[in-house]
Amino acid sequence: MFSTFPLMNKIVYNFSAGPSTLPKQATAEAAAAIADFASTGIGIMEMSHRTKPIEGMVAETESLLRELLSIPSGYEILFLGGGASLQFCMVPSNLLDSNASADYTDTGVWANKALKEAKKFGKVNVVCSSKESVYNHIPKNFEQTSGATYLHVTSNNTIYGTQWKEFPKANTYLVCDMSSDILSRPIDVSKFGLIYAGAQKNMGPAGVAAVIVRSDILGKVQRDIPTMLDYRTHIPEHSMFNTPPVFSIYVVNRVLHWLKNLGGVAAMEKINIKKANLLYDALDNSKLFKGTAAKEDRSTMNIPFVFREEAVAADKKEAVEKKFLAMAQEKGLEQLKGHRSVGGFRASIYNAMPIEGVEALVGFLGEFENLAH
Ligand SMILES: *Cc1c(COP(=O)(O)O)cnc(C)c1O
Description:
A hairpin with a 4-residue loop joins strand 7 (156-157) and strand 8. The chain has helices at 24-35, 52-68, 83-95, 109-118, 231-234, 246-262, 264-284, 317-330, 355-370; strands spanning 5-7, 10-14, 75-80, 101-106, 123-129, 151-154, 156-157, 162-163, 174-177, 192-198, 209-214, 289-291, 302-307, 333-334, 345-348. The protein is of the alpha/beta class. A seven-stranded mixed beta sheet has the order 3-11-10-9-6-4-5, sandwiched between helices. A three-stranded mixed beta sheet has the order 1-2-14. Strands 12-13-15 form a three-stranded antiparallel beta sheet, covered by helices on one side. Pyridoxal-5'-phosphate binds next to helix 3. Pyridoxal-5'-phosphate (PLP) is lined by residues 18, 83-85, 110, 154, 158, 177, 179-180, 198, 201.
């Protein structure tokens, strides 16, 4: 049911930050559909998107996402190529007029990339930043700019392991990059004008991004938006203006079915909190390891951790890190190397990571601590 993969009798847990682990059931169903989709005798990658089975599948994916996130009417759902990074420019292209401004929160590398891109379209007010402290916390006390079109936030900072636990109240509306924690917890969609998320962290494979947009915020900018970058091109066509990434959308479809069967996002949130607490408790009680993110902002999805300075001498650190990663890998605990900007290690424990994976990691942390370094 979860994403475990028996490799020569060894269970592998994949802690990759993205693309990342998917529910085993979803990937098995997707694999079967490559050979034969919906008993048509045609593989899903070989079928026109202008057919009933594919149109039906995309429509069902849309309605599943609407149901799981309780997306109210007035909001449209799109499945687009180009990843979350394309949304860094598509959002301001559609929403930010050249003589207007938007507020951006600078909470990590992805947030920073989003605001840099927006500067190409209008004025960007960086209303807060935690860059000086290597993005180890979410800066919460900031003023919004009067007249700003929207307030942009990055829900979960994948690299630094911080997460908005409560979203700021926007003067107008929030725009949110939810790439690395969408579907991990219930959200109040009505607070957002637009939500976007690359699928490959918590929702499916690379190749597709979901966009949830309140339609009344569109059509307010003066510029002539290129056809493919205009949300209004894709809305009436239900993401089928041109050939959509059909297979990626299908994997999302299977992941959404899996999530629904599990009890939806509220049930998922409980499991996610349990998994994260298990790992954070182990790190807090360890004499060797410690987490890097400020406690109150800790992510339930990405957990970076390093050796405590007093536990490992600086000149030995690199060698001990190598040893840790090699031993972890032997135990089937994969992809634990930290991002270069934080160093150390990072465990990404997205929705599809089973609690057994986190338990195995916690067990290994204890074992490793007991070795002499
Ligand atoms: C991974 C990630 C991105 C980039 O996604 P792409 O689909 O590769 O463009 C953007 N934002 C966040 C928060 C991410 O985690």
